[in-house]
Every structure is written in structure tokens, then in C-alpha cells.
Amino acid sequence: MHELSIAMGIVEAATEEAQKRGVQVSTVHLRLGALSGVVKDALLFSYEVACQDTPLAGSKLMVEDVPVVVFCQKCNDKRELVSMQSFTCPVCGTPTMNIVQGKELEVFALEVEEEEVAE
Fold first, then answer.
1. Would 47 be classed as within a structural domain?
2. Any idea what the CATH number is for the domain that residue 63 is in?
3. pTM, entire model
């Protein structure tokens, strides 16, 4: 289950960023492409496990699903695939492997709260 190692990497990177800025992360926002090779439910579960006993314990992982978009040379336009079984333009039916979007696995935002300083 490589989702656990991915979740651990996300937690580590978010923790480092939070420590640099002196903030507490409440939510991590992630873009996850349909062709990323990552199972969303497994990643969500792994994130909870990876957060245990870290400064991110109790934080949430919000996943934005990114569909597969290809470029059709015949239509000269970007098209969202209707099925992962057929890499063809949904408008004209031309086969294409020119993937424009759908492989993403990126943290694009952190929701944070200022840490309270003990006096």
C-alpha cells in the first residue's frame, strides 16, 4: 500500500512548512488525478494513520478529484475523457494519448491557524 508512504510524505512536508511559519495546519488540500495511481480512500485512511503523534494530528485531508483531459489534434481542443477504458476524443472519436491533465498528485494549499505562544 504505497498510499501510506505518500501520506507520510504529505504530513512531513506540511509539518515542515507549518514549523517554518509558526502555524498549526488544520486542513491539507490535495489535487488527485484519476491517472495518478493513488487510491483516494486508501490515501484518506493512510493520512489519518500518518498524522498520529505528529503536529498534524486532527487535521483533515481534502482531496480534489482531477479528471483526465486529453488534447485532440483533429478537434484542436482539450477534451475530458468519458471513460478510462478508451483514450479517444469524446466528440470526434479520434484516438489520442496526449494527456493534458489527470496525473496530478499535488498539495496546493494548507489551511492554518496561528499557534498560541505560551507566556
1. yes
2. 3.30.2320.80
3. 0.85
- What does the pLDDT look like over 24-79, one tens digit per residue? 999 999 999 999 999 999 999 999 999 999 999 999 999 999 999 999 999 999 99
* Phi, psi values for residue 52, rounded to 5°: -55, 135
Look up the domain containing 26 and give its range.
Answer: 3-114
User: What's the total number of domains in the chain?
Assistant: 1
Q: Would residue 77 count as lying in a domain?
A: yes
DSSP assignment string, the chain: -THHHHHHHHHHHHHHHHHHHTEEEEEEEEEEETTSS--HHHHHHHHHHHHTTSTTTT-EEEEEEE--EEEETTTTEEEE-S-TT--B-TTT--B---EEES--EEEEEEEEEEPPPP-
